[in-house]
Design brief:
Blueprint: H1 2-21, H2 25-34, H3 40-52, H4 56-68, H5 75-88, H6 91-103, H7 111-123, H8 127-136, H9 143-155, H10 159-172, H11 177-189, H12 201-217, H13 233-241, H14 244-255, E1 262-265, H15 272-284, E2 289-292, E3 297-301, E4 304-305
Parallel strand pairs: 1-2
Antiparallel strand pairs: 2-3, 3-4
The structure holds zinc ion (2 copies).
């Protein structure tokens, strides 16, 4: 009975999909193997199921079986296959399937296919190939594609391409905070916490060195608890040392007459160490220092802060 056959298929496909999505991949496979007839949706459900459950190589085997069964794969089949390749880092296989898709099956790649390929190539270290692919995309690459590329620049610690991509993203999607975070992570990976192009850089760092000695003599201990655990102690101190508000305070001390209030505006919440340091400095140099961070004002005077150390 024809109607019965097609409704059976729909139910069976739904069951394969449901089992796979619940993580019962063996049950899904049992159902799939028992099906008397399979269509492209059945195969896709099985391929996606294996890929999503972490059995990417099995997913590719199912895809090969699909090709042998003479079921014509569609764009979803290839999206699942490329996704599996990118999660397993199978660059050669991914490239083969990507070419097979357009050359043998005349399927035009969508953003999803490109995204998988960019992810696959760049995470495996082929940043140039990934970039070439993005540039050659016939559809305008969406923010998500560039974000994926920027993520890979971070993973592969490529400052040049990272900065280039971040600049593009600042234009495309200026309000996307993730771009700023990724770029700052890239700089952090190579120890470039801030640029040193300021004409007074040398003086500012010398001033901070001097203050650090005075602070240590006054009992200051750097608070490095919150920092990345894998950074050496010495680097930790250096890192804390270079937070922008400390540089700004040193700059203020160098360029204003003694006794003048120093005002600093910061777009992030002030960290515990900068807060402690600023308290020490306000006492050592006998200046009032007002820091406005993202949530509030801190008035530092004579070693104390108006926030009472709660912010
Ligand atoms: Zn800080
Ligand atoms: Zn405070």
């Amino acid at each position: 009975m024809e109607g019965g056959f097609s409704s059976d298929l729909i139910v069976e496909n739904a069951l394969v999909d449901m089992y796979a999505k619940c993580g019962s991949i063996d049950k899904a496979r049992e159902m799939f193997d028992r099906m008397p007839h399979r269509d492209v949706i059945s195969w896709n459900a099985m391929i996606a199921g294996y890929a999503q459950n972490g059995f990417c190589k099995v997913a590719l085997k199912i895809f090969e079986l699909m090709l042998h069964s003479r079921t014509c794969p569609d764009m979803i089949s290839f999206a699942c296959v490329l996704w599996a390749c990118s999660h397993e880092g199978l660059v050669d296989e991914g490239c083969t399937y990507f070419n097979l898709m357009s050359n043998s099956y005349c399927i035009t790649p969508t953003v999803d296919h490109y995204l998988c390929m960019v992810d696959l190539l760049t995470r495996a270290g082929y940043l140039d190939d990934g970039l070439n692919l993005i540039i050659k995309m016939p559809i305008k690459p969406l923010v998500v594609v560039w974000m994926c590329f920027l993520g890979a620049c971070r993973l592969r610690i490529n400052i040049g391409l990272g900065v280039f991509t971040a600049m593009l993203l600042f234009d495309l999607d200026p309000k996307n905070a993730a771009t700023y975070v990724l770029l700052s992570n890239i700089y952090a990976e190579v120890g470039r916490w801030g640029d040193r192009s300021h004409p007074q850089t040398q003086e500012i760092y010398t001033k901070l060195d001097k203050l650090a000695l005075e602070m240590k003599a006054a009992g200051y201990i750097p608070d490095s608890k919150r920092l990345l655990n894998d950074v050496e102690e010495e680097e930790n101190e250096l890192f804390l040392y270079h937070h922008s508000e400390k540089l700004a305070i040193a700059f203020g001390l160098l360029n204003t007459p003694p006794g003048t209030t120093i005002r600093v505006v910061k777009n992030l919440r002030v960290c515990a160490d900068c807060h402690t340091v600023t308290k020490f400095i306000s006492k050592i140099v006998a200046r009032e220092i007002i820091v406005r961070d993202v949530t509030r004002f801190h008035h530092f005077k004579q070693g104390l802060c108006s926030c009472g150390d709660y912010w």
